[in-house]
Structure formats: C-alpha cells, structure tokens
C-alpha cells in the first residue's frame, strides 16, 4: 500500500474519531463505521485494528478524563465498560474482515446494521453483568436490553451516517485521484 493511501485512510479514521469530541446524542458515534472502514481499506490487517483502536482509545482517554474528572482523583486509562466496548469493536472488525473484502453499497449497509447490532448486544450484556441496577437473571438481562432500546436508533444512525461519510468520501477521493486507490494488484 502506498504511504499516501495509508495516511489518507488513517486521516479518515482520525477525522471520524475526533467527531466524538463534538456534542452528540448518546451512542451516536463512529465506532462501528471506523472498525468496518479500517478492515475494508487497510491492506495489512494489523493496521486495520491498531489505527482505529488507538484512535478510539485516545478519544476515550480524553473524554473519560474530562467527563469524570470531578469524581475521580488521578487519571482513568479505561472506562468501566471498556472490555465490552472494545470487545464489540473487535467483533465488528471481524465482521468487516469477512463482509467487506469487496466494498459495495449493500455490503457497507449490511456492515453498518451488523455493527449496530453487535455493539447493542455486547455492550448491554456488559451493563447487565456489571450494573447493580439489574439482577443477574434472565429477567434482569431482558430488563437491561429493554432499557437500552431507546438508544439503539442513535447507534444505528451513527453507524449508517458515519459509514456513508467514510466509505462515500473515500470512494469519491480515490475515484477523483486514482493514484490514491488502495486497489491491491499484488494480492
């Protein structure tokens, strides 16, 4: 992969992650979109995980320390639900690895829908396990998922919109400037 293409893909991911710093509705984030985007376009799949995860972690570091500074002394390296959030991110990346070997509108749409669903299921399972609000029973799990439903449409909207912006923007630029295309002739 050309260095300029690598930087362009990384720049798109950084742009999306920086949007988390703007005011937004709960769960309206680029999380799923950047996991899918990285897997679709980085030839070396280690970068498809490293770059988005590092960008996500850096924004989490900033957001969590800004948000909880008044409650905690010291520096928080991870939020309480980080295992489940980053676990869902890894599962979304796996989905992107298999689904987006060829980028098309239908595959990106399916990936965004799948990303939202994966994040909903895994992150709310983590809330159920770690929150004293819900009993650790099937009824408690159902209560947790039911309470999370009103936030799902924000997750879905975020994944759809950010996927559209990332994939659409990248496709537009690489068609306008074909030398930036990540087409892999040596694969």
TrEMBL record:
Name used for this protein in its record: Uncharacterized protein
Keyword Membrane: yes
Transmembrane segments: 6-26, 47-63, 75-100, 112-131, 151-170
Keywords: Membrane, Transmembrane, Transmembrane helix
Pfam families linked to this entry: DUF6580
């Amino acid at each position: 992969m050309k260095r300029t293409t690598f930087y362009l893909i990384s720049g798109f991911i950084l742009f999306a992650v920086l949007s988390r710093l703007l005011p937004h509705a709960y769960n309206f984030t680029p999380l799923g979109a950047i996991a899918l985007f990285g897997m679709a376009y980085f030839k070396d799949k280690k970068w498809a995980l490293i770059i988005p995860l590092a960008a996500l972690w850096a924004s989490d570091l900033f957001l969590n320390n800004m948000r909880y500074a008044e409650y905690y002394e010291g520096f928080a390296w991870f939020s309480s639900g980080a295992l489940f959030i980053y676990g869902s991110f890894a599962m979304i990346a796996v989905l992107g690895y298999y689904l987006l070997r060829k980028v098309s509108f239908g595959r990106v749409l399916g990936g965004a829908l799948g990303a939202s669903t994966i994040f909903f299921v895994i992150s709310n399972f983590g809330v159920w396990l770690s929150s004293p609000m819900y009993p650790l029973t099937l009824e408690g799990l159902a209560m947790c998922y039911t309470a999370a439903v009103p936030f799902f449409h924000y997750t879905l909207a975020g994944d759809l919109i950010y996927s559209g912006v990332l994939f659409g923007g990248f496709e537009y630029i690489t068609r306008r400037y074909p030398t930036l295309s990540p087409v892999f002739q040596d694969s």
